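testing teh design pipeline on a random one, pls ignore if ur not involved
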């Protein structure tokens, strides 16, 4: 691993300066839940790519430990700033809500398309953490900026690895440009689906003991949109999403739906 969360100086965080920012609390806690559940995805991916020892061994030995470390690093940040929050109880609730959705059914129909989907997911995560890094700098919270920076770099590295495997699979499973655009677009739409909403719901219920209502999450999403407008690295996202198309001259006509999809993911 390129970094170790144990080396981060959590004790130096000025918790008082940021602990009243509810939006930050929900954002980072949700991310910690989703990251720390990566072992479930890893098992499903290993089943999906069974027989491809190169991919399966990288998923087990590199990808999963790194994703889990993301979760642990974020969890420790949450527990350092909001120690009164019962992270474990909220996470147990999240798992109860979310695990039934984690099945092989959510995968693409073929191996090459799933590699493309993985690249979309890593685009989403690397750019999200870049936005968090930018936000943390603005909040004058260097420890969070450091964590988000490290995670964002890892996610780019994951993207590169999935891209290598994507290229390998395209040698035997040819995809047309429209297949590529459709797969990217379909996966982008899924990013906005359940995980963020269920994480928010689990946190809300644990924190307040009240019944969750969808409008609360809609309010949170409105705040995410504002956050994204200010901090999201759009150019980076668009560049990564378009890379599988290996664009030359026809950039404009094919890139528009992809860019629209990218913007939709973050609710713009
Ligand atoms: Fe991650
Ligand atoms: Fe990743």
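output:
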């Amino acid at each position: 691993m390129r970094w170790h969360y144990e080396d981060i100086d959590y004790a130096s965080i000025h918790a008082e300066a940021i602990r009243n920012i509810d939006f930050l609390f929900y954002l980072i806690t949700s991310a910690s839940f989703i990251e720390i559940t990566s072992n479930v995805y890893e098992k499903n991916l290993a089943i999906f790519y069974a027989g491809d020892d190169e991919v399966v061994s990288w998923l087990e030995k590199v990808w999963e430990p790194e994703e889990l470390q993301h979760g642990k690093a974020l969890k420790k940040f949450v527990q350092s700033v909001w120690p009164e929050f019962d992270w474990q109880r909220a996470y147990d609730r999240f798992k109860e809500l979310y695990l039934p959705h984690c099945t092989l059914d959510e995968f693409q129909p073929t191996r090459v398309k799933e590699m493309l989907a993985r690249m979309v997911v890593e685009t989403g995560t690397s750019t999200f953490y870049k936005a968090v890094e930018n936000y943390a700098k603005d909040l004058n919270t260097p420890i969070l900026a450091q964590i988000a920076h490290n995670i964002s770099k890892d996610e780019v590295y994951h993207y590169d690895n999935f891209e290598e495997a994507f290229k390998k699979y395209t040698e035997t499973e040819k995809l047309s440009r429209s297949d590529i655009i459709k797969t990217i677009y379909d996966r982008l739409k899924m990013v906005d689906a359940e995980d963020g909403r269920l994480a928010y719901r689990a946190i809300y219920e644990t924190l307040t003991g009240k019944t969750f209502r969808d409008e609360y999450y809609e309010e949170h999403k409105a705040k995410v949109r504002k956050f994204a407008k200010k901090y999201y690295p759009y150019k980076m996202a668009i560049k990564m999403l378009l890379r599988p198309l290996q664009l030359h001259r026809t950039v404009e006509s094919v890139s528009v739906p992809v860019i629209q999809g990218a913007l939709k993911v973050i609710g713009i």
